[in-house]
Design goal:
This protein is an alpha+beta fold and about 725 residues long. Helices cover about 30% and strands about 30% of the residues.
């Protein structure tokens, strides 16, 4: 009998383990033997094993391919969004059937890349901390035909024939795409590649060079490369530019009819020093009864961009403005975004004003929303407004700024009492020259001027969301789903490892106190990032599920219509300018998607600029040592962050002190077996860069150790 064959059980186990594996896709007998490298002399035996497994009810044939005989597979379709680290999430086509995105581990994405429409098998018995889990079984439709890449290396094949391998962030460093190089192609060339094959398993993707964008050594092409790589629109259609030109350069008197004249109110803008697109202006006063009268005045973009006009159609495609170091790719032409819609000082501008009254405790007494026009009295930068408040600069608007601070504190307290959490994180601004070369960074603190602007925008957004909901309008909400308690376990563990005390089951108040204490330590940013990673992303939705992070029942985006399409739609809804057939769900999905793509484009350029700056410093001072903070411990090493550059690095255990390090899972630390040296999250270390790779967007580091501890070079 075949079952008595000495290799029967071995081969049966091999076949079953492979077919039951998460990565298995249905295969024919011939394909299965090839995958398992079964030699011809054992194929007859394996054929009998497959027959036995079918008779036992373990396997069955489906279209001549072997599949497990069990409950029908749960299949769904959707669009995959691949993270830079390789894993992905599939956004279901049918939200009613699958309300959650499906998590796809890195090894189960197959040949799918970001933006592809895929078919997924949902694993009914497996979930991860990222939600329900599945695997891609087929790519139904490619999201793109071209990708941006950088030539990584060029290899000789036969004689003078060469083949080049290019790195694309879309594919990752483990899957370089093969192309036939042109005569002048060199390592570091930045190119657009027309993909001919997306590859599979160990088979490299293949393509041909469509056109060159520049060289990695030239920082002036960083932004253009990102624009092409992420398929952003940089040129406005002639029809949109013609429509813009028709409006002229100034507001006409005829446009002021049926609008409330608010030019008698002192209004001002407070924005970053380099900003040109001033969406919002503020006004404030306080009467003898102690009532605050706040005005949030938003540029009336809807007046200039009618539904389905050329400008509107292009704004839908772009979704939002994209901000790079030293450059803005606008949603609307500069003639609108930086001029006619921008609330510049001393000129009349059309606005939509939210006028709200608040008592001495910050309770809102009432509000009204009106189409208006204003003449801004002052354009403040955040720095200038802070200098006025600090008494370092004189201004006729000091009293208004002081009133804004008063009301800001009242509103912040109300928000805090609701359970909202403030991170107050600084922003790192990368300063570039006219050629795109970064030469320094600027750390912008989240001071009171930033806080008061944010607080008033939050209140205006909340008012508008509730106002439209009460009227039964199809609102595009900004929502943030509440996470499950178990989602925070890693965050709690990190906080405790950094020395912060937390009860066994922390409540919202405990988290607020934690962040208040963290502001006085070097760990504030690290904890904020970890906390944000524990939560769902805020997105746009036609279904209101509230905003967990802000602790609000109603919230939308209304205050930035120059740079966000959702805000433009909301503005139209206020005055019934939007069509009756508004598909809020489609707009929400589209704008969430464009926001994500813009964020990735912005992040890729920021990372490259940081690495360029680090590369420059390294060449100038090769032995320079930098202080860093350990952020995450892994069994194989740890991640750290250079706070002055907000740049993440990694050190493998083999690169640590002259010792053998093991991971203690219970304490989440690395311990040296010989000397007992430990590394834990929150430790401060000193490192120096050993290599900067601008092609792969990577940096390599080494610990700065006392000479006697350094390993000898091998």
């Amino acid at each position: 009998m075949v079952k008595n064959h000495p290799n029967y059980d071995t081969f049966k186990q091999v076949i079953l383990e492979y077919i039951r594996g998460k990565k298995y896709l249905p295969l024919t007998e011939k394909e299965l033997f090839k995958k398992l490298s079964i030699s011809p002399k054992f194929q007859a035996l394996c054929r009998m094993i497959l027959e036995d497994l079918q008779q036992e009810g373990v396997l069955k044939l489906s279209k001549k391919k072997f599949v497990l005989h069990g409950p029908p597979r749960e299949l769904m379709t959707g669009t995959i969004r691949v993270h830079a680290k390789g894993f992905g999430f599939v956004i279901p086509d049918h939200r009613i059937q699958y309300p959650q995105d499906i998590f796809i581990p890195k090894h189960l994405t197959e040949s799918a890349v970001d933006g592809d429409r895929v078919e997924v098998e949902v694993n009914a018995t497996s979930t991860s901390d990222k939600g329900p889990e599945g695997k891609v079984i087929a790519v139904l439709e490619r999201g793109r035909t071209h990708i941006g890449a950088t030539i990584h290396h060029i290899a000789a094949v036969k004689g003078t024939q060469r083949i080049a391998y290019a790195y694309s962030p879309l594919l990752g460093s483990s899957k370089l795409i093969a192309v036939t190089p042109k005569k002048k192609t060199v390592i570091g060339d930045r190119v657009i590649i027309k993909v001919q094959s997306w590859g599979h398993d160990k088979e490299a993707p293949e393509g041909e060079i469509s056109h060159f964008l520049g060289h990695i050594s030239d920082p002036s092409c960083d932004i253009q490369c990102a624009i092409e790589e992420f398929d952003l629109h940089s040129v406005f259609p002639p029809e949109a530019l013609d429509q813009t030109a028709d409006w002229g350069r100034e507001v006409q008197k005829s446009e002021l009819k049926k609008r409330e004249d608010l030019t008698g109110i002192t209004t001002m803008t407070i924005d970053p020093e380099t900003a040109k697109d001033f969406d919002d202006a503020l006004s404030i006063s306080k009467d003898k009864k102690g009532i605050y009268h706040l005005g949030v005045h938003i540029a009336d973009v809807a007046h200039y961009v009618p539904v389905d006009s050329p400008l509107d159609l292009e704004a839908v495609v772009r979704g939002n403005s994209t901000y790079f170091p030293g450059y803005c790719l606008p949603m609307l032409p500069h003639e609108l975004s930086d001029h006619l819609c921008s609330l510049q000082p001393d000129v009349i501008r059309l606005t939509v004003s939210v006028l709200a009254d608040f008592d001495k405790e910050g309770n809102m007494l009432g509000y009204r929303i009106t189409r208006s026009y204003i003449k801004s009295a002052k354009r403040f930068s955040y720095e200038e407004a802070k200098e006025v408040l600090d008494g370092e600069l004189k201004s006729p608007h000091l009293n208004e700024l002081k009133l804004m601070v008063e009301l800001c504190h009242l509103l912040k307290k109300k928000r805090h009492d609701r359970g909202s959490i403030d991170f107050a994180l600084p922003e790192l601004v990368i300063i570039v020259d006219e050629k795109g070369q970064p030469h320094k960074t600027k750390r912008v603190e989240y001071d009171i001027t930033h806080q008061l602007v944010e607080e008033f925008m939050l209140k205006a957004n909340e008012i508008v969301a509730k106002h439209l909901s009460d009227k039964g309008k199809p609102v595009v909400f900004r929502v943030h789903e509440a996470p499950e308690k178990e989602d925070f376990e890693d965050f709690y563990a990190l906080a405790r490892s950094l020395g912060f005390s937390l009860p066994a089951s922390p409540e919202q108040r405990d988290i607020q106190e934690l962040f208040e204490k963290a502001q006085k330590t070097p760990f504030a940013q690290q904890l904020a990032v970890a906390f944000i990673r524990s939560m769902n992303l805020a997105i746009y939705s036609s279904e209101n599920v509230g905003h967990y992070g802000l602790a609000l029942e109603y919230y939308t985006h209304f205050t930035s219509p120059i740079r966000r399409y959702t805000d433009l739609v909301i503005q139209r809804l206020l005055f019934d300018q939007e069509g009756k057939d508004l598909q809020a769900d489609k707009i929400a999905e589209r704008c969430s998607e464009r926001e994500r793509i813009s964020f990735r484009a912005e992040s890729s350029v920021k990372l490259l600029k940081k690495l360029r700056l680090m590369d420059h410093w390294m060449k100038e001072e090769p032995l320079e040592v930098y202080e860093a903070l350990i952020t995450r411990i892994k069994p194989f090493g740890f991640f750290f962050e250079l706070s002055h550059l907000m740049l993440e690095g990694f050190l493998h255990i083999s690169e640590l002190d002259n010792d053998y390090f093991v991971y203690n899972e219970a304490q989440n630390i690395l311990i040296g077996r010989t000397a007992g040296k430990t590394y834990r999250a929150g430790d401060t270390i000193k490192v120096r860069p050993s290599a900067i790779d601008l092609v792969l967007l990577e940096s390599k580091w080494e610990l700065d150790l006392p000479k006697k501890q350094r390993r000898r070079a091998k």
